[in-house]
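User: Reviewer 2 asked us to show a designed sequence for the structure in our supplementary figure. I'm pasting the structure tokens here. Could you produce the per-position amino acids so we can include them in the response letter?
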């Protein structure tokens, strides 16, 4: 969304809605019209929202286009969370918070694809994993990674919200629609979901369907993300930085726990001054960093000690992937096995474990505009363990919880 200009945002001229088939040979999604977008010179038609606008004369010269999205309330009305879904999400959030606070002795496990690029494959993964998660529900609270935004250190595919067609189209309107429908479908199946909020302006479109959220290593120091966390009605994990620094994540948890006043979008999409009550369910995620892994007993003890000194709850989540495995899914499986033993030994502080998994192991490269070349159920971002390995890891963690209970 472009920033408002110093002149108070002069009015813009709205084009009348256009109609017709979308450039990919599909009907335009509800609320969209078809027109030329940047890139049409390469022979590609892309659907654009009916609220596409011409730029005001005072707009920055490097701003090429302004396209008005529907409001969060509008998308929620179009793809509503029915009462059963709302009750399910509320219950799964409460269970997650109880584990983080230590009043529920189960282990939180966040497992699933690095980033979702194929909603059908994500639903298949959930359907095939659900029998195991239900079997182990007395020891584990399993939440599915359904990451629909992809933060980037440099360039690359930016996630399902930004590029649902895997074609570089940046069709965010369609991406939000596809992502919200996926989250609702997963909740209807009885699978809680986790996601990372990358763009704070888009959070209101999806947050009511999410059980647990992450703030990533690249945004842990962002004031806007810390303020966002303070207003969310769900537990939020905040990662240490990519360099491996723990302090910024601890600071972020402290900030998010306090009331905040900040600018953001309200449910109708208007820029507003928002005031939050603070979020007591935020926590640190250890994900490793440039200086190596940080999931050891000593690392956990040092971090929980820092949390305690800061007046925060000394419980955290360990990410077995990313910097703690060097993005090697086989190494991540070994990390999970080690964590399961430590949980069984009664090591304090570990409230949850995160690991990346999909239908097939490994990863593959995306050729932009050629999703037909992709293997079904294999990650196009970081390397993931397959479904069989996921079941094994869940059983290892459940056994660790059972052993810890016997020692109490």
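Assistant: Here is a per-position design you can include in the supplement:
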């Amino acid at each position: 969304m472009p920033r408002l200009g110093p002149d108070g945002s002069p009015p813009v001229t709205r084009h009348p809605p256009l109609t017709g088939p979308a450039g990919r040979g599909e009907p335009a999604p509800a609320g969209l019209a078809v027109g030329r977008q940047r890139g049409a010179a390469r022979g590609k038609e892309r659907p654009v929202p009916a609220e596409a606008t011409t730029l005001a004369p005072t707009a920055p010269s490097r701003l090429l286009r302004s396209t008005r999205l529907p409001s969060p309330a509008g998308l929620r009305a179009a793809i509503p969370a029915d009462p059963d879904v709302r009750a399910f999400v509320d219950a799964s959030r409460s269970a997650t918070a109880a584990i983080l606070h230590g009043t529920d002795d189960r282990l939180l496990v966040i497992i699933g694809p690095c980033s979702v690029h194929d909603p059908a494959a994500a639903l298949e993964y959930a359907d095939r994993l659900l029998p195991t998660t239900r079997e182990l529900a007395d020891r584990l609270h399993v939440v599915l990674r359904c990451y629909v935004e992809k933060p980037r250190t440099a360039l690359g595919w930016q996630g399902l919200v930004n590029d649902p067609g895997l074609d570089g189209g940046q069709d965010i309107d369609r991406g939000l629609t596809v992502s919200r429908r996926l989250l609702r479908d997963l909740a209807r199946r009885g699978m809680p979901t986790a996601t990372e909020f990358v763009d704070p302006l888009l959070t209101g479109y999806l947050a009511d369907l999410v059980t647990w959220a992450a703030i990533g290593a690249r945004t842990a120091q962002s004031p806007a993300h810390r303020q966002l966390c303070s207003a969310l009605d769900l537990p939020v994990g905040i990662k240490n930085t990519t360099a491996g620094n723990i302090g910024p994540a601890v600071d972020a948890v402290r900030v998010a726990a306090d009331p905040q006043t900040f600018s953001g979008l309200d449910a109708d999409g208007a820029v507003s001054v928002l005031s939050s009550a603070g979020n007591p369910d935020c926590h640190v995620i250890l994900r490793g960093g440039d200086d190596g892994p940080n999931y050891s007993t000593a690392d956990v003890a040092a971090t929980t000690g820092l949390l305690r000194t800061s007046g925060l709850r000394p419980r955290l989540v360990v990410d077995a992937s990313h910097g703690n495995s060097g993005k090697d899914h086989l190494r991540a499986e070994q990390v999970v096995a080690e964590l399961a033993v430590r949980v069984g030994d009664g090591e304090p502080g570990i409230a949850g474990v995160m690991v990346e998994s999909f239908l097939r192991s490994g990863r593959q490269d995306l050729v932009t505009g050629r999703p037909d070349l992709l293997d079904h159920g294999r990650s196009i971002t970081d390397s993931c363990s397959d479904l069989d390995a996921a079941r094994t890891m869940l059983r290892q963690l459940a056994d660790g919880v059972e052993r810890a209970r016997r020692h109490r």
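For the response letter, you might also mention the following. The chain has two domains: 1-68, 74-406. Confidence is low (pLDDT under 50) at residues 1-50.
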